[in-house]
Amino acid sequence: MRAASVALLLLVLTALPPAPAGAADNGEWSVKPADSAITPRAAFELPAHPGTTLSDRAVVTNTTDRALTFRLYIADAHNTERDGGLAVRGIEETQRDVGAWGRPERDVITIPARSAVTVGITLRVPQDASPGDHVGALVAVDDRVRPGAGSHLGVQRGVGARIYLRVDGPQRPGVAVEDVRFTAQTPSIPWADAAKSTVSYTLRNTGNVNLNPRVSVHVGGVYLGGPSERRLTDVPAELLPGQKVRLSASWSGAPLAGWGDVTVTATADGSRDSGSDTFLEVPWFIVGCLALLSAVGLTALRRRRRAVPAARATRAARSADHE
């Protein structure tokens, strides 16, 4: 059962909120840095020098009416492939970055009901640590194994506080847009319904610092309907160094018809990159109208060609009778 529950840990992990605005909290327990003498902290944010050792303290709080036991560990953070949100490696996974550098002073703690425990953590930054940002989390995993919804497997829940380390050295922001795909789903009759197309693309952090990217899409060429540019939402608030995510956005105001290119542009910390995909969209309604107009035109032309000899013959006959 424990092997199954650990495998499902990332699926139920509530460790990292969308932004470090408050303590990581799932309503039953929370993990946060111990308050400094100046101001409360929502995350561990520490400057780091290669080869140095850092120490800090965390507070784990149990807000339930029963004692809870937690396994503590420090984990690497990464962006999820599904939506770019932040997640961490499981307790049984191999840690390669911040998770390999640090450990709490206690691996297991039991906290009485409605109480808190302060735990020290130590981070040993390797001498060969790469410059830039390194992100992880101190995670408290509930020791209980709960049944999974609609499954015979058990799950464990974890909550964690983010750890941000910035290792001394050159800071190189970099963003890349790759593999842009525009999938049109235009209505058969233009203007009868909105076009519901999709723009998908891969966003990659090619630098060594965390990015908060802004992404827009621009349409160029000859087309009908929709604005030429729009800002894309559901972009990761934090894209970690070396991470890439595949994103997709529906576009209700996409071009109804025409040809050209769709360009996705990402900007972050002075870095900028674009990727494009071409499109050619001609709704069947327009094709049918053009075919109908062509048929009508050809029919009229044929009738006109037939009418010309007949008119000439009639004029010739009238001229002979007159003579």
What would you say this structure looks like, in words?
The termini are far apart. The protein is α+β, with helices and mostly antiparallel strands. The strands form 5 sheets. Strands 3, 5, 6, 8, 10 and 13 form a 6-stranded mixed β-sheet that branches. It has helices at 2-7, 9-12, 98-101, 284-322; strands at residues 24-25, 29-33, 44-48, 53-62, 68-79, 86-88, 102-104, 108-111, 115-124, 132-142, 146-147, 154-155, 158-167, 175-183, 197-205, 214-224, 229-232, 244-251, 257-268, 271-281. It has 4 helices and 20 strands.
- Gyration radius, to the nearest Å? 32 Å
Structural class: alpha+beta
Q: What is the molecular shape?
A: elongated
Q: What is the N-to-C order of secondary-structure elements (H for helix, E for strand)?
A: HHEEEEEEHEEEEEEEEEEEEEEH
Largest sheet: 6 strands, mixed
Number of strands: 20
Low-confidence stretches: 1-15
| N/C terminus separation | 114 Å
Proportion of helical residues: 10-25%
Mean pLDDT: 81
Q: What quaternary form is this?
A: single chain
Query: What is the helix tally?
Result: 4
Q: What is the percentage of strand-forming residues? A: 35-45%
How is the topology of this model organized?
Blueprint: H1 2-7, H2 9-12, E1 24-25, E2 29-33, E3 44-48, E4 53-62, E5 68-79, E6 86-88, H3 98-101, E7 102-104, E8 108-111, E9 115-124, E10 132-142, E11 146-147, E12 154-155, E13 158-167, E14 175-183, E15 197-205, E16 214-224, E17 229-232, E18 244-251, E19 257-268, E20 271-281, H4 284-322
